[in-house]
Design brief:
By secondary structure, this protein is an alpha+beta fold. It has a single domain (2-190), classed as Gcn5-related N-acetyltransferase (GNAT) (Aminopeptidase, 3-Layer(aba) Sandwich). The protein is 30% helix and 33% strand. Strand 7 (162-173) and strand 8 (179-190) form a beta hairpin. Helix 2 packs across helix 3. It starts with a strand and ends with a strand.
Length: 193
């Protein structure tokens, strides 16, 4: 586990590289994940086990980048995950022909608890993930965001991501217990070497 940034608000951003390093943070991560994705525009419902499995799966992917913004009290204020897009077959199906699959990284998860929104934490998690990508192997990044052109969309635009015009329907269990899809937009960025 490596501290990659310390913030004035008391959060440290850790790069987690193994299940053992994640273990102390896993319950707080699961709670944060559940809370963040239950809010609009996604309104998704995850059990604690499902949320915890997201972290465990990400750590099993080769060349992963798993960042947690934490307090020593055990609180997780935010997270950002990334890994080679080749490890996401559903995404590869949607973007094949748009970007070189073997040279593209995927920004999988970005979440910030309400208390730290508009504090620059999301921007910092994006910038740190960008800085940690091996530029010898990867020269593109792709991610999905809500098809609504909201604050996250604008944040990504300001950070140099471009609207690809490509959408994907993402199925999930919603807060009301129903299972339905919502539309996500792919945004991409070419990396400088």
């Amino acid at each position: 586990m490596l501290t990659v940034a310390e913030r004035d608000d008391g959060l440290r951003i850790l790069r987690i590289e193994s299940p053992a390093e994640a273990e102390p943070w896993a319950p707080a991560f699961a709670g944060a994940y559940q809370e963040i994705w239950s809010e609009p525009p996604y309104n998704e419902r995850f059990s604690s086990e499902e949320a915890g499995a997201v972290l465990a799966r990400a750590l099993r992917i080769p060349d992963n980048i798993v960042l947690l913004a934490v307090r020593d009290s055990g609180l997780v204020g935010g997270f950002g995950f990334a890994f080679p897009v080749s490890s996401k077959p559903d995404v590869v199906r949607e973007i094949r022909g748009l970007l070189p699959i073997d040279r593209t990284f995927y920004f999988a998860e970005l979440g910030v608890m309400e208390r730290w929104r508009r504090s620059g934490l999301a921007n910092q998690l994006i910038a740190l993930r960008l800085s940690l990508i091996n530029r010898e192997r990867y020269d593109h990044v792709i991610m999905r965001t809500s098809a609504q052109k909201n604050a996250p969309y604008e944040m990504y635009k300001k950070m140099g991501f471009e609207d690809t015009g490509v959408y994907m329907e993402v199925p999930a269990r919603r807060n009301d217990g129903s299972f339905r899809t919502d539309r996500r937009l792919f945004m991409a960025k070419v990396l400088d070497r």
